[in-house]
Amino acid sequence: MKAEHTFLLVLICVLAGPVLGQSRSMIVNTNMASSNVFVDGEWLGQASQSPFEISADARRVTVSPAGGDAWSIEALSFDLMDESAAVLTLDARFPHYYRFETVPQGASVEDSSGSSMGSTPLTYVSNDPLVGQILLKLPGFQTASVTIGSEIWNRSLVELTPLPGMSIDSDGGFRVEGHRRRRWINYVAASTAVVGAVLSIHFRTKADNRFDDFSETGDRSLKSDIHRLDIYSGVAQGFMQVGVGVFAFRLAF
């Protein structure tokens, strides 16, 4: 009996040995032939070298993009724990990434149908490559259009053109240039207010002096001068008030 058990144990080991040590084939279908293939953390090669021979007890396959844009594209992982087929076929197709940036930022990003995709800066991910043109819209600036590519990673950086009468501030904002061109109105209004105040005081002082002379001498000829100077003072004061009003309005609006 003991000899029979020993014989069965040896037979099981002989038959199981090749099964436990066997390998299997793995095919990697991908849209990035230069991507790197790792099995349980060990690099096998690029996807273009597929198919690969891997151990039957391999647990995880990772397909990572290669190149300078690898940091922005997520790697694809596959769990092999429940896979028992002798030949594995992995669908390692990466989605398409579209990066949109504008100067200044905050532009609306719209596809060719006019649907909003978000606002800049924007990273848009699509399973299929986008077609047509992308529109970038920002109030005060001309609408820009971008012809997009079909690569896995696509980046568009656009400097928007201000509309006529608009300009960009040093802090990245924009303003109406017309306000800048009409800045002389502020100076004229302020100057009118100052000159009006000075002339009003001047004529008012002269009128007061004439009135003092009239009070002392009783000379009736001075009354016409007093009346004329009072009118001049009132007109000057009116100019002062108009200048102050225009200047205040310009500051408010």
List keywords for this structure.
single chain, alpha+beta, four-stranded antiparallel sheet, 4 helices, 36% helix, 30% strand
Structural class of the secondary elements?
alpha+beta
Unreliable segments of 5+ consecutive residues: 5-20
Strand order of the largest sheet: 3-2-5-6
Mean pLDDT: 78
How far is the N terminus from the C terminus?
107 Å
Strands, count: 16
Query: Which shape, going by the Cα principal axes?
Result: rod-shaped
Secondary-structure element series? HEEEEEEEEEEEEEEEEHHH
Helix proportion: 25-40%
The largest sheet is: 4 strands, antiparallel
How much strand content do the residues show? 25-35%
* Tally of helical runs: 4
Rounded to the nearest angstrom, the radius of gyration is 42 Å
